[in-house]
């Protein structure tokens, strides 16, 4: 059972940057979808970025392409989300998640391990 814990959220002005981290309780082996999701008040949780472990393919939601970058450390125990040029519409609770294949990147129901979330607030 993989346990995930996010950190790095906070309040920032529009145009600013934040780096989110997600610490996993152990090594995430090949054969998993890992990614970041977010949920704003009154909205459904949505995929932000993700990748298949053991693959170089990455997924980004159209709304964050060119601004956000997902990565992990070599030990694959920490997942990162670098967020630049933040906008007020990026305000949400951000979650990291993992799920075994078969899984689709960015699809909430395919992930069965979730962190508790970290709040990101972007002011105009």
Describe the structure.
The structure is a single chain. The chain is 0% helix and 49% strand. The chain is globular. It starts with a strand and ends with a strand. It contains no helices and 11 strands. It has 124 residues and is mainly beta. The strands form 2 sheets. Strands 2, 4, 5, 6, 9, 10 and 11 form a 7-stranded mixed beta sheet that branches. A 4-stranded antiparallel beta sheet has the order 1-3-8-7, with no helix packed on it.
Mean pLDDT: 95
For the secondary structure, the number of strands is: 11
Q: Percent of residues in helical segments?
A: under 10%
In the predicted model, the low-confidence regions spanning at least 5 consecutive residues are none
From the alpha carbons, calculate the radius of gyration and give it in angstroms. 13 Å
Short description:
By secondary structure, the protein is mainly beta.
List the helices and strands and how they pair.
Elements: E1 4-7, E2 10-13, E3 18-24, E4 32-39, E5 46-52, E6 58-60, E7 68-72, E8 78-83, E9 92-100, E10 113-114, E11 118-123
Parallel strand pairs: 2-11
Antiparallel strand pairs: 1-3, 3-8, 4-5, 4-9, 5-6, 7-8, 9-10, 9-11
Can you give keywords for this protein?
0% helix, 124 residues, mainly beta, globular
